[in-house]
Each structure stands twice: as structure tokens, then as C-alpha cells.
């Protein structure tokens, strides 16, 4: 009993004094769960091929990662954060207010979002407008007035689509995949409808509210963040469609098929060329102030921007990352090597 | 039962009816009892069936992870390829292209595969770990350079999945992860006896990896053990001491009532709240490192404490007062009474509570997310402050990975977690038996 107590006390009191002040010889990375499978592959390769320790990568989500990243400069804060969206102006301001002044942005490639179903039934060919009509909370009727979405089967939207009930399994609102899907597919579809296009010109906020609202009457099923689960559910239910990342389609192509969107199939080539319309850019951000304090950051960034990782034949392609066009890749590598830090003005430009 | 009917002999019509009514009531009561027993048995069998289905599913999916297919290759340690400077120094050997060694050896078997893309798809059948394995061999023994050796290397996950029957040759080529040529090569390798299946020891000796064939459970298992050690060392003495004080020594007043209510409430607080507390207190205020088993253990100890205190108090309360009174009457001080008589008798109950709390702690991921233990960590943790993850987190991360070979790894990790849990329970049972006393 007594020894237990003393041990516990020693554990509780002895260590914090030294822990904070210690330096680090291991890179700490946080951020997006979408970038996680790619960043971990790079980290493992980096750890094996160099003398540096393998970086520790936490899967915290893009927003959570940037919050940790921007908390300050010092060994208790992470060196790199992964993000499946671009950093926001508010986040740069948060970083700056905490003394994180130089942030190097590195774009690593694209991630396609697919709408897939079981191979037991036919392949869907959808347009973004049809996707919007199937999944939006409110849709404009013939007169252009917004009414609650009344479509129950795909054939009601368009006669070319099958007469099956609309049932789409997708990620919940907390997921980055959902954000990207809403922004690229739903907003894209809403823009294709004249009355909503007119609304966009008048009132951007109202337009976004309509375009981003997904129906809650059971046609869209929030199936959780685990994409493997959605794939399994699609196998069990051939009538349903599912929304998830391209890498899961790539791994399960014997069981499921990706729907055509706007006439283009979700393939490696089509996503890379931008012909397939639902894909987003993936990034990571490096804290420049840490570069000479934690060994290996420069080399890690070098590995992550090298052609053998993110090139057209790179090992990340095998994991489902779609490479940037050649010219962009060279520019990204140059910027990363010279540690060009991102400015608020860069964000406004886009 | 018969005495009920014996009790009133049918003497007249009235009492006969009475007896019949009594018999009916009796039959009804018996039927009710039989029904109740049936419901109970049904409930138990449903639970057992569910458990059997779960275990069957997990073992069915996961047993494959304990086997892996390996390839025996005749490797020529070509000095031109792996020793670019030609001086056998470790710097030079480190720069060598070991992937080429594997590909060269494979093209020796399949002389037809000469084009770049053929070589690429042939090489991708073998795990990327093979190159590092060869490199380690050469670094350990530079005299290998220029020699020929038979080396056994693991297959890549897709090839392994093919041998295990998860990738089928009859699916169209565009829909599977292997090309027709690759499948033909794999069949030939098998026919010629270059391959065999072996126990996957690697699964128990390595840390996490993004390549399913290289991923192992040891890192997470060590992390779990380290974390639970801290949890036990903190929560058991604190919990038992609190239980003893509250039950045996504390005055019964409004304050102790308030404390009791609070402890009962804390036992029901969602675990993520303890994670937030850990983040706010241990990381932000005290500046502890992230992802450390020490902090994980501290957070889980906070979560486990109420369970141990409640179970400990119940166990102390269950010790008959006669024991205390007898000890007191022999002149023992209150402390002696508690430590020498009451506590040993209460120990089995306290241990049961502790094991329930520890089992709960073993399965937690939510509070660990906040303190950075949901992470990809390759190195096996060696200290209480080195970055680590735990078994349930490893299961979560693998189940979320796109590669299909991780499905069996996930189930295998669940099996390891269950075995760990059983080992913990067994330890508790054994300890309980040692302390068990009857009175």
C-alpha cells in the first residue's frame, strides 16, 4: 500500500517539471483524417529511409488540427498540420495572435469524392443538378419557388434514372468529406438551376443556405465517418448510393462502382485532369519557426513533395491520392523549399 | 406441493369446488413459474448466441491475420546496385537501391518480364518492407555484398489477399487490384514452390505501419500495458483509501453526503469529459507531453476512481459488524481493525470493482483523443512519456483504413484486446480466490 502511494506521488509530481522544458527530436503532426492515410505513408517512408525518428501523426480533423497548430510556438505545440481544406483567414489571424507568424502552405494533391453503388445494379449517370435535387432540403418547383424536397424516387427527378427510392449513405456534418461534397456537388448543382442562380446574384448568403442544406427526411442517411462501413452497407443494400473518398472505391472496385457525374467516370485520370467535377485539394501547413528547432522537418517536407511520393507514379497514388499537374507540382516544391509563408492576401486572391 | 391438495379432503360439493379452484390456481402458479424460467433461459441463450455470433465473426475475419504468405528468393547482393561508392562503408551501403535487388531476382525467375512497367508490376507483388529487410541484413553483415543468398521476404498485401482468396481471378481485370499478368505470376510462383504460408510473427513483434503486411500490434499492446499500469497505480490506492476513509472514519454529515453524491455522479460522467479535463489540466496547465501513456493513464485513472470507490465502499459495508466488534473487543485500534480485519475480507469485492473499472479503461478511446493518443505511431513505446497509442485506438485506426487487408488486422487486433481483457480478469479471479474467506 505504502509503496503504491509513493510511486503514484512520484509519477504525479516528479515529471511535469522537466517535461515542458524538454526539446524534441521527433516531428509532431496533427490534422485531417482525410490526409492521415497519405501523411502516415510518407512519415513511415521518411522514418525508414532517414536517421530521423518517424513522426507522430494524430488524426484530429482539419479544424481541430489547425486549432492545435495555431496555439503557439514551442515544443509542446505541433510542427505540421494536415488539412483537407485551405486555411481560413480567421485561422491565420488566430495563428498570428499566438505568435505563429510564418506558415508554409504545401498543396499535395487532390482527393476525389465518389457517389457509388453496388455492382449488383446498374451504374448511375448523374448530373450535379440531379444530385442537388435528390439531396437538398428545399428545391425550387416549376414556378421557381422553394418548396420542401418531395422527390422520393430517382425517376421523378429525371426519366432516364431508375425507378428506385432515393437512399444515399453519406458522412455526417462533422466530416470534411461532407463539407467538400456540399461545396462542390450541391452548390454546383444549385448553380445549374436558373432560379437559384438568380438568387445567388441577389443574396449570396441565402443561396448558400439553400445549397448547403441536406434533406433530413430519411433519403440521406448519415452513415458515420467510417467509409469502410458505407462500402459494406452498399454491398448489403444494392438500391442505395454512398458518398465517400476515392481511395475506398479504388480498393473495392470489385464490389462497388462509381457513378458518372456530369458524364465523367471517377477514375484516377479523370480526377487528375479535373474532368470529374467533385474533387478537392489537400494541404499541409508547416510552422516555419520550428524548422531549425525540430530536426528533420525540412527533409520531411522534401519527402512529401518528392516525385516518388506525390508524382504520377508515386507511392501515394497507390493509396488513392490524385497528383497535381506537373507544373503545379514543381511550383509547390519550389515554394516549400524556400519556405514561402502564406499571407492573408493569398487567401483573398482565390 | 402435494400437501396443498392433501390439506383439504373433498368432503362436500362446496369444498370440492374449492379444491378444484385451488388446483387451478396452483397450476396457474406453476405455469407462471415455468414461463418465467423459460424467459430467463431464453434471455441467456439470446445473449450467448449474440456472443457466439460476435466471436465467430471476429475469429472468421481475423484468423487470416495470423498467417502470411512469404516468398523465398535467390538474392544476388550486387555490389554495383547496393554499394555505389564501392567501399563497403555504411554510408555507401545506405544509399544502395535494395528494391532493385528484389526486382532483379524476380526477373531472373520470369525472364519474360523485362519492360519497365512489367518490372514495376512484378516488383509490386513483394512488400516494400523487403528492401528494408535486405538493407538491414547488409548493414549488419557487409560481407554479404557480392554473395548469393536465399532470402524469405513477405508478399505485398494484394498478393497475400490473392493467396488467401479475397481477390479472385474471375473478377474482371479492371475491377481488381491485381493485373492478369500479376495473377499469372503469383500462380506460377506457387506452382514452382517459391511461396509458402507461415505464422505471421511480425504481427506480434512490430508497431503500426501503413502497409498492412508490415503492420503489427506490439506498439499498441505496449501502450495499453503502460497506460493501464499508470491507471492502476494511481486509481487503486487512491480509490481504496477514499473508500476506507468515507466508509469507516468520516463523520456522517452534510459534507460527506455531498461528497458521496458527487462520486456517484462522477461515475456516470461521459468519458470524453475526462479527456477535456486532461487536456485543460495536464497538458495546458502542467505542460505534460502529448500522446504519453503517463497522461493517458492519469486521465483514465480519474475515470476509474469513482467505480473503485463505490465498489470498495459496498465491499467494506458487506463485512459483518461482528468482525469489527470482535476485533475491537480484543483491544485493536480502529486502524488495526480496518487494515487487519475488515480490508482483507473486503478485498475480493474491491478487486471486482477494480477489474470492472480497469476493463472500462482498457476499452476507452474518447478521452485519449483529446490528449493526442489517437495517432499513427511506428516506434514501440519504451517509457511512460514516449508517444504511444492503445489497442482500441489501433482497432479504430485500422478499421478506418482503405486497404482491404486491414479488415483481418482489425479483427485480429480485437482478438488480442479480448485476450488481454481475459488475462486481466483471470488475474482478478486468482487474486480473489486468495483473499476469499467465508464466515
Describe the structure concisely.
The complex is a heterodimer of chains A (350) and B (439). Chain A has two domains: 156 residues, D-Maltodextrin-Binding Protein, domain 2; 168 residues, Periplasmic binding protein-like II (D-Maltodextrin-Binding Protein, domain 2), CATH 3.40.190.10.
Fold and architecture overview:
The complex is a heterodimer of chains A (350) and B (439). Chain A is of the alpha/beta class and 350 residues long. In chain A, 43% of the residues lie in helices and 17% in strands. Chain A has two domains: 24-110 and 281-349, Periplasmic binding protein-like II (D-Maltodextrin-Binding Protein, domain 2, 3-Layer(aba) Sandwich); 112-279, Periplasmic binding protein-like II (D-Maltodextrin-Binding Protein, domain 2, 3-Layer(aba) Sandwich). Chain A has helices spanning 2-14, 16-19, 36-49, 62-69, 89-97, 128-135, 154-157, 176-191, 194-202, 204-212, 227-236, 246-251, 268-273, 297-305, 307-310, 315-318, 326-337, 344-349; strands at residues 28-31, 56-58, 80-83, 103-118, 125-126, 138-140, 146-148, 168-170, 220-222, 241-245, 256-258, 260-261, 279-287. In chain A, the strands form three sheets. In chain A, strands 1, 2, 3, 4, 8, 9, 10, 11 and 13 form a nine-stranded mixed sheet that branches. Chain A has a two-stranded parallel ribbon with strand order 5-12. In chain A, strands 6-7 form a two-stranded antiparallel sheet. In chain A, α3 crosses α14 (297-305), α6 (128-135) packs across α8 and α8 packs across α10. In chain A, 43% of the residues are buried. Residues 5-10 and 13-21 of chain A have low confidence and may be disordered. Chain B has 19 helices and four strands. In chain B, 66% of the residues lie in helices and 5% in strands. With 439 residues, chain B is mainly alpha-helical. Chain B folds into two domains: 66-205, no CATH class; 218-435, Orthogonal Bundle (MetI-like fold), CATH 1.10.3720.10. Classes of the chains: A alpha/beta (350), B mainly alpha (439). At the A-B interface, α1, α3, β2 and α12 of A face α11 and β4 of B.
Amino acid at each position: 500500500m505504502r509503496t503504491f502511494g509513493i510511486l503514484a506521488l512520484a509519477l504525479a509530481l516528479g515529471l511535469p517539471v522537466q517535461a515542458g522544458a524538454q526539446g524534441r527530436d521527433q516531428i509532431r503532426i496533427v490534422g485531417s483524417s482525410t490526409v492521415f492515410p497519405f501523411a502516415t505513408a510518407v512519415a513511415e517512408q521518411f522514418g525508414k529511409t532517414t536517421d530521423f525518428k518517424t513522426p507522430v501523426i494524430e488524426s484530429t480533423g482539419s479544424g481541430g488540427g489547425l486549432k492545435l497548430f495555431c496555439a503557439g510556438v514551442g515544443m509542446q505545440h505541433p510542427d505540421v498540420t494536415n488539412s483537407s481544406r485551405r486555411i481560413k483567414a480567421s485561422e491565420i489571424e488566430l495563428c498570428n495572435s499566438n505568435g505563429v507568424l510564418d506558415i508554409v502552405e504545401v498543396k499535395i494533391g487532390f482527393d476525389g469524392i465518389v457517389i457509388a453503388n453496388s455492382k449488383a445494379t446498374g451504374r448511375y449517370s448523374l448530373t450535379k443538378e440531379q444530385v442537388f435535387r435528390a439531396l437538398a432540403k428545399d428545391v425550387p418547383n416549376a414556378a421557381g419557388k422553394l418548396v420542401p424536397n418531395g422527390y422520393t424516387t430517382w425517376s421523378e427527378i429525371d426519366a432516364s434514372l431508375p425507378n428506385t427510392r432515393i437512399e444515399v449513405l453519406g458522412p455526417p456534418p462533422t466530416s470534411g468529406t461532407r463539407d467538400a461534397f456540399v461545396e462542390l456537388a450541391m452548390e454546383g448543382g444549385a448553380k445549374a438551376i436558373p432560379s437559384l442562380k438568380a438568387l445567388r446574384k441577389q443574396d449570396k448568403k441565402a443561396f448558400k443556405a439553400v445549397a448547403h442544406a441536406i434533406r433530413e427526411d430519411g433519403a440521406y442517411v448519415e452513415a458515420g465517418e467510417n467509409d469502410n462501413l458505407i462500402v459494406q452497407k452498399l454491398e448489403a443494400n444494392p438500391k442505395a448510393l454512398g458518398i465517400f473518398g476515392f481511395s475506398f472505391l479504388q480498393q473495392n472496385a470489385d464490389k462497388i462502382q462509381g457513378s458518372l457525374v456530369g458524364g465523367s467516370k471517377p477514375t484516377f485520370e479523370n480526377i487528375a485532369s479535373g474532368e470529374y467535377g467533385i474533387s478537392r485539394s489537400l494541404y499541409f501547413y508547416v510552422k516555419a519557426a520550428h524548422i531549425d528547432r525540430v530536426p528533420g522537418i525540412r527533409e520531411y517536407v522534401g519527402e512529401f513533395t518528392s516525385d516518388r511520393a506525390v508524382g504520377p507514379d508515386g507511392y501515394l497514388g497507390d493509396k488513392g491520392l490524385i497528383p497535381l499537374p506537373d507544373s503545379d507540382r514543381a511550383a509547390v516544391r519550389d515554394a516549400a523549399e524556400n519556405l514561402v509563408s502564406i499571407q492573408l492576401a493569398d487567401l483573398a486572391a482565390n | 406441493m402435494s400437501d396443498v391438495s392433501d390439506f383439504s379432503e373433498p368432503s362436500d360439493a362446496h369444498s370440492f369446488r374449492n379444491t378444484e379452484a385451488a388446483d387451478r390456481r396452483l397450476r396457474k402458479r406453476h405455469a407462471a413459474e415455468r414461463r418465467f424460467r423459460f424467459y430467463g433461459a431464453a434471455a441467456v441463450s439470446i445473449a450467448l448466441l449474440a456472443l457466439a455470433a460476435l466471436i465467430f465473426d471476429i475469429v472468421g475475419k481475423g484468423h487470416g491475420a495470423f498467417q502470411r504468405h512469404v516468398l523465398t528468393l535467390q538474392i544476388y547482393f550486387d555490389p554495383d546496385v547496393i554499394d555505389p561508392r564501392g567501399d563497403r562503408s555504411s554510408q555507401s551501403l545506405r544509399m544502395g537501391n535494395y528494391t532493385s535487388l528484389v526486382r532483379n531476382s524476380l526477373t531472373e525467375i520470369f525472364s519474360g518480364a523485362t519492360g519497365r512497367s512489367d518490372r514495376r508490376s512484378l516488383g509490386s507483388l513483394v512488400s516494400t518492407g523487403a528492401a528494408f529487410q535486405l538493407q538491414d541484413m547488409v548493414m549488419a553483415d557487409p560481407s554479404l555484398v557480392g554473395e548469393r543468398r536465399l532470402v524469405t521476404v513477405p508478399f505485398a498485401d494484394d498478393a497475400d489477399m490473392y493467396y488467401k482468396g479475397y481477390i479472385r481471378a474471375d473478377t474482371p481485370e479492371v475491377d481488381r487490384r491485381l493485373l492478369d499478368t500479376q495473377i499469372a505470376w503469383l500462380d506460377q510462383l506457387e506452382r514452382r514452390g517459391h511461396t509458402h504460408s507461415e505464422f505471421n510473427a511480425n504481427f506480434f513483434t512490430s508497431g503500426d505501419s501503413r502497409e498492412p503486411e508490415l503492420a503489427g500490434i506490439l506498439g499498441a499492446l505496449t501502450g495499453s500495458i503502460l497506460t493501464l499500469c499508470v491507471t492502476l497505480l494511481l486509481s487503486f490506492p487512491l480509490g481504496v483509501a477514499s473508500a476506507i476513509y468515507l466508509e469507516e472514519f468520516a463523520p456522517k454529515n452534510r459534507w460527506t453526503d455531498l461528497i458521496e453524491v458527487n462520486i456517484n455522479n462522477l461515475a456516470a460522467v461521459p468519458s470524453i469529459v475526462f479527456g477535456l479535463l486532461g487536456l485543460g489540466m495536464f497538458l495546458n496547465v502542467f505542460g505534460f507531453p502529448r500522446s504519453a501513456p503517463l497522461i493517458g493513464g492519469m486521465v483514465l485513472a480519474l475515470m476509474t476512481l469513482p467505480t473503485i470507490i463505490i465498489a470498495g465502499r459496498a465491499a467494506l459495508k458487506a463485512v459483518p459488524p461482528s468482525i469489527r466488534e470482535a476485533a475491537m473487543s480484543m483491544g485493536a485500534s480502529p486502524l488495526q481493525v480496518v487494515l487487519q480485519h475488515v480490508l482483507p475480507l473486503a478485498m475480493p469485492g474491491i478487486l471486482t470493482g477494480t477489474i470492472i473499472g480497469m476493463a472500462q479503461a482498457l476499452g476507452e478511446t474518447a478521452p485519449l483523443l483529446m490528449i493526442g493518443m489517437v495517432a499513427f505511431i511506428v516506434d514501440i513505446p519504451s517509457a511512460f512519456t514516449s508517444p504511444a497509442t492503445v489497442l482500441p485506438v489501433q482497432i479504430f485506426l485500422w478499421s478506418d483504413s482503405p486497404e482491404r487487408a486491414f479488415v483481418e488486422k482489425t479483427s485480429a487486433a480485437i482478438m488480442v484486446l479480448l485476450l488481454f481483457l481475459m488475462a486481466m480478469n483471470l488475474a482478478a479471479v486468482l487474486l480473489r480466490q486468495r483473499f476469499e474467506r467465508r464466515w
